[in-house]
């Protein structure tokens, strides 16, 4: 088509837009809705004969269904929990499987059903520049093989960093003062994670700590906004998402921090080779990643990107779990004396966390662990867990066929609120798990917050692809709570109560504006 003809068509379109009646404009709007719905609604990678939940009419546009609250759709359809069903998100369909399939899928290798690919798709890796999630598991593998065996040592290092930041981040007021407890906890966890991941001096650099907090928000915002549009529209939409441009600034800072650490690592390795003392050098997770990386993984940009994704997975999750614990404790203050008594008993038996092995110390906090597990149940960070993408077709024992490319998930939020799984599920009962663990020797090692258990805890996923950082995260939560509850009193501001729960697709979070009152504890 020539430029002359194109200009002519554009001129006619502009003229029509100027002269169209309201009825014509409404008609065009409806037509546009149906075109977008068609483009966004094509699906061909679902389990055969699986009903799509939520349509109220055959004429209802798909995008209206995608705009509906996923929480309601899952809750409504979970009444029929023994059969698969589909819920729609803007960018994909989720095939929700009955819980009975979970054990069968537990050990299916990631080459067939992949949690990593599901995460990368959720993060819209092509628009958030997280391509490495598709290619490699370096950071997750290092956490499993290196961090887990040395967890005690690195928890002690993290505790040192909390000590450094305690009077910087935590108000030391003798009188009641209103605080943004979520921001306080984010800063403390960011310090702990930064010390373990990249070490000093980055862990005390305010600009790096800010990146650790803001990258997560900007990455999720970018992915959430862009995936609301059909693939053909995304290049245009992406150009108008400010959070996407902020990601570039975060990466520039990450490359500076990581680049400096990589230079120090080279010097460290040379000193070791020369037989010189290296006692003054503190190894970090980044050091381990450099040593384990292949040629493609060892580039500066990729190492920086991996540091950012690790902060995404650790800082906000851990700080939010800690904040929810405190909010629920203020809602149910009758449990505070018991928790403080347990902390004191454990300190007397083992020494407090500052003078003992934190990894072993926190395992003795059975009641705190049970309280935390009940918080996970009432406030799951995600409604659909675990999630997988089928990289190869898979047929289940009962003949259900999962085609290649299918997105599957389990309704963990509703499952954990099922009366057949949790008696009286609407009641906040923080000693559920504690009573189970005390009931028999067989149960004593089960029902822990770090364990992935079919009956009551899918917070960290399940099976061979469960979250590798859960042991670190739970230990950090308990360490922070023990110190906070020992040193401070907490309550809600006048007229306030448990913050509102908010949803963005399957993601769950509490109101970011929620505050608490705190003061230095008055001990008689």
From TrEMBL:
<keyword id="KW-0472">Membrane</keyword>
<keyword id="KW-0560">Oxidoreductase</keyword>
<dbReference type="GO" id="GO:0020037">
    <property type="term" value="F:heme binding"/>
</dbReference>
<dbReference type="InterPro" id="IPR001128">
    <property type="entry name" value="Cyt_P450"/>
</dbReference>
<dbReference type="Pfam" id="PF00067">
    <property type="entry name" value="p450"/>
</dbReference>
<dbReference type="GO" id="GO:0016705">
    <property type="term" value="F:oxidoreductase activity, acting on paired donors, with incorporation or reduction of molecular oxygen"/>
</dbReference>
<keyword id="KW-0408">Iron</keyword>
<keyword id="KW-0349">Heme</keyword>
<feature type="binding site" description="axial binding residue">
    <location>
        <position position="467"/>
    </location>
    <ligand>
        <name>heme</name>
    </ligand>
</feature>
<keyword id="KW-0503">Monooxygenase</keyword>
<keyword id="KW-1133">Transmembrane helix</keyword>
<dbReference type="GO" id="GO:0005506">
    <property type="term" value="F:iron ion binding"/>
</dbReference>
<dbReference type="InterPro" id="IPR036396">
    <property type="entry name" value="Cyt_P450_sf"/>
</dbReference>
<dbReference type="GO" id="GO:0004497">
    <property type="term" value="F:monooxygenase activity"/>
</dbReference>
<protein>
    <recommendedName>
        <fullName>Cytochrome P450</fullName>
    </recommendedName>
</protein>
<keyword id="KW-0812">Transmembrane</keyword>
<feature type="transmembrane region" description="Helical">
    <location>
        <begin position="20"/>
        <end position="40"/>
    </location>
</feature>
<dbReference type="InterPro" id="IPR002403">
    <property type="entry name" value="Cyt_P450_E_grp-IV"/>
</dbReference>
<keyword id="KW-0479">Metal-binding</keyword>
<comment type="similarity">
    <text>Belongs to the cytochrome P450 family.</text>
</comment>
């Amino acid at each position: 088509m020539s430029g002359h003809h194109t200009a002519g068509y554009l001129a006619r379109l502009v003229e029509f837009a100027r002269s169209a009646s309201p009825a014509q404009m409404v008609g065009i709007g409806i037509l546009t809705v149906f075109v977008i719905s068609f483009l966004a609604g094509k699906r061909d990678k679902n389990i055969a004969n699986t009903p799509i939940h939520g349509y109220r009419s055959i004429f209802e546009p798909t995008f209206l269904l995608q705009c509906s609250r996923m929480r309601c759709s899952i809750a409504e359809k979970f009444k029929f929990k023994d059969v698969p069903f589909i819920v729609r998100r803007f960018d994909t369909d989720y095939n929700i499987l009955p819980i009975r399939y979970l054990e069968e899928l537990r050990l299916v290798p990631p080459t067939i059903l992949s949690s990593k690919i599901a995460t990368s798709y959720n993060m819209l890796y092509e628009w958030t520049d997280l391509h490495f999630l598709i290619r490699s598991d370096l950071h997750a593998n290092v956490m499993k093989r290196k961090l887990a065996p040395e967890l005690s040592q690195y928890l002690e290092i993290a505790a040192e960093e909390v000590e450094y930041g305690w009077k910087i981040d935590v108000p030391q007021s003798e009188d009641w003062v209103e605080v943004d407890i979520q921001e306080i906890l984010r800063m403390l966890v960011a310090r702990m994670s930064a010390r373990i991941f990249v070490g000093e001096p980055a862990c005390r650099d305010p600009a790096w700590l800010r990146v650790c907090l803001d990258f997560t928000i900007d990455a999720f915002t970018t992915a959430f906004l862009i995936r609301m549009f059909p693939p053909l529209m995304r290049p245009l939409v992406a150009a108008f998402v400010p959070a996407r441009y902020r990601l570039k600034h975060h990466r520039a800072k990450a490359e500076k921090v990581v680049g400096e650490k990589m230079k120090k690592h080279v010097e460290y390795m040379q000193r070791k080779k020369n037989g010189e003392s290296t006692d003054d050098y503190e190894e970090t997770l980044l050091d381990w990643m450099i040593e384990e990386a292949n040629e493609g993984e060892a580039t500066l940009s990729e190492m920086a990107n991996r540091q950012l994704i690790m902060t995404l997975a650790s800082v906000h999750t851990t700080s939010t779990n800690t904040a929810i614990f405190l909010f629920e404790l203020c809602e149910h203050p009758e449990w505070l004396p018991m928790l403080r008594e347990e902390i004191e008993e454990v300190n007397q038996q083992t020494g407090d966390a500052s003078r003992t092995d934190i990894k072993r110390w926190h395992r003795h906090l059975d009641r705190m662990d049970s309280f935390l597990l009940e918080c996970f149940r009432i406030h799951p960070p995600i409604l659909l867990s675990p999630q997988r993408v089928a990289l190869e077709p898979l047929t289940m024992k009962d003949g259900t066929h999962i085609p290649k490319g299918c997105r599957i998930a389990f309704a963990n939020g509703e499952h954990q609120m099922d009366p057949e799984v949790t008696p009286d599920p609407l009641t906040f009962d923080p000693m559920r798990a504690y009573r189970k663990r005390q009931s028999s020797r067989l149960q004593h090692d089960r029902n822990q917050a770090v364990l992935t258990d079919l009956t009551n805890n899918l917070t960290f996923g399940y099976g061979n692809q469960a979250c590798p950082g859960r042991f670190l995260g739970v230990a950090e939560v308990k360490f922070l709570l023990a110190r906070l509850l020992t040193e401070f009193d907490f309550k809600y501001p006048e007229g306030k109560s448990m913050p509102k729960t908010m949803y963005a697709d399957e993601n769950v979070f509490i109101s970011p504006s929620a505050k608490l009152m705190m003061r230095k504890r008055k001990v008689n």
